[in-house]
């Protein structure tokens, strides 16, 4: 396994996070333990407020943990290249689609290499013809593609996705689910995907982690091949099992 692979493994041990809201302490995470393998697509599900999004923020240092350890590779605590995709695209409205995608690497590559990398993302995500449009001129689904392209252009070791498809209509959601699976298979990235939608988790994930009240309740390996059929007996049975873990 190469250096990138070592970095893209994660070990999370006894992680705690507490917020203080109007003088009241809220325990968002209560001793979370999990292991994420290099090159895996892991989905995290659970009720609202169970700590899913908080955990992602700690993983990419948007917030600091109170206690515990998040290590990468063989005990490495220095962050590898980690990027996060939020539910809303968070594009810069004054920049075109192309300029938004190139933003995280502008000035770090030569002109030809920069153009080649950005063009590759535009073509892979099917938005090349909109490269000169501004965020206000594209649909929500296309804006989320731009956000994903910006993340991939950075070439992170680990991609964190915090309900990135939650605000999309069913058609665009299905298209982006297919694209995420394609990116995972072709790019061999380590992806952590938070969702409240159990069916979406089963369509995407190799492993599904169920969280409850700030802790990991259970984890399940998903051995179905891609693309997955939500009407299959195996899919339906796994969905029932996960729903029973969340709501049972």
From TrEMBL:
Keywords: ATP-binding, Nucleotide-binding, Transport. GO terms for molecular function: ATP binding; ATP hydrolysis activity. Residues 10-238 form the ABC transporter domain. The keyword Acetylation does not apply. It comes from the Bacteria. Gene3D superfamilies: P-loop containing nucleotide triphosphate hydrolases. InterPro entries: AAA+_ATPase, ABC_transporter-like_ATP-bd, ABC_transporter-like_CS, ABC_transporter_ATP-bind, P-loop_NTPase. The keyword Nucleotide-binding applies. This is Putative ABC transporter ATP-binding protein. It comes from Peptoclostridium litorale DSM 5388. The lineage of its organism: Bacteria, Bacillati, Bacillota, Clostridia, Peptostreptococcales.
């Amino acid at each position: 396994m190469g250096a990138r692979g070592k970095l893209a493994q994660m070990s999370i041990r006894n992680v705690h996070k507490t917020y203080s809201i109007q003088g009241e302490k809220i325990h968002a995470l209560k001793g979370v333990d999990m292991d994420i393998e290099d090159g895996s697509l892991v989905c995290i599900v659970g009720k609202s407020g169970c700590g899913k999004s908080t955990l992602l923020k700690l993983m990419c240092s948007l917030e600091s943990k109170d206690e515990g350890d998040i290590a990468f590779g063989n005990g490495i605590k220095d962050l590898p290249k980690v990027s996060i995709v939020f539910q809303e695209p968070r594009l810069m409205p004054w920049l075109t689609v192309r300029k938004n995608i190139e933003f995280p690497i502008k000035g770090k590559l030569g002109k030809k290499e920069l153009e080649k990398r950005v063009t590759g993302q535009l073509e892979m995500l099917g938005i090349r013809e909109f490269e000169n449009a501004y965020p206000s001129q594209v649909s929500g689904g296309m804006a989320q593609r731009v956000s994903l392209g910006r993340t991939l252009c950075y070439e992170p070791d680990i991609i964190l996705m915090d309900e990135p498809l939650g605000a999309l209509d069913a058609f665009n959601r299905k298209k982006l689910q297919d694209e995420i699976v394609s990116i995972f298979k072709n790019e061999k990235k380590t992806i952590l995907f938070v969702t409240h939608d159990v069916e979406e988790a089963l369509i995407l994930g190799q492993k599904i982690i169920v969280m409850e009240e700030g802790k990991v309740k259970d984890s399940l390996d998903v051995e179905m091949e891609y693309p997955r059929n939500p009407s299959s007996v195996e899919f339906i049975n796994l969905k029932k099992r996960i729903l029973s873990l969340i709501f049972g």
